[in-house]
Amino acid sequence: MKKLIQRIKRLLQRIFNSFASTPQQPSPLINSRPLDTSIPSVSPRWESGLVLVCSQCANEQSGSTASEDLENWLKSRLKFEGLWGEFRVASTSCLGVCPKSGITVVIVSNGSGGNSPCLIVNPRSDVYDGLRLRELLYSRIKQNKD
Q1: Which regions of 68-137 does DSSP assign to beta strands (E)?
Q2: pTM of the shown model
Q3: Distances, alpha carbon 76 to alpha carbons 8, 18, 118, in Å
């Protein structure tokens, strides 16, 4: 029995060594096809920026749909001005900022170099210095195009 176990170990060792020395050969354990380890990448449809609106900020505070309303307004505004496609608006789960009042919005652009502004938009205070907060946010988003 001991000799049989040693022979099996040697046989397994030769099998493992043959696979290690010839990585181009397909593995018989994986449908006789080589394993594809590459991760595909795609070019996004948006060219100028992606606007992430936290869907949990307002919901956690009062169960309201303020973040959904803001997201829909931004989408409509971008479509109205013909900028939908260059910019995209998407809801996201928690971004980790968690303001006491307001909605977290992150503007990601191709040219930001990893420095994406994280803004807190308070839907309750609709006016800031005589301008609508949504308009201020929209103008901030459009700055990524210029």
Answers
A1: 87-92, 103-108, 118-121, 127-128, 131-132
A2: 0.63
A3: 69, 61, 21
End-to-end CA distance of the chain: 78
Q: What share of the chain is helix, strand, coil (3-state, %, to 5)?
A: 35, 20, 45
What order do you get walking across the sheet with 118-121 strand by strand?
A: 87-92, 49-54, 103-108, 118-121
What is each CA distance from 134 to 51, 61, 64, 139, in whole angstroms? 13, 20, 17, 9
Q: What is the pLDDT of residues 117-133, one digit of tens each?
A: 888 887 766 665 545 77
Question: Two tokens at 59?
Answer: 């919901």
Q: What is the pLDDT of residues 78-112, one digit of tens each?
A: 999 998 888 899 998 888 888 877 888 888 877 66
Residue 108: which residues within 8 A CB-CB, separation 6 or more? 49, 50, 51, 52, 116
8 A C-beta contact, residue 86 and residue 45: no
Assign residue 83 a region: left if phi > 0, alpha if psi is -120 to 50, beta otherwise? Answer: alpha
- Is residue 108 helix, strand or coil? strand
* Residue 76: both structure tokens together: 């409509």
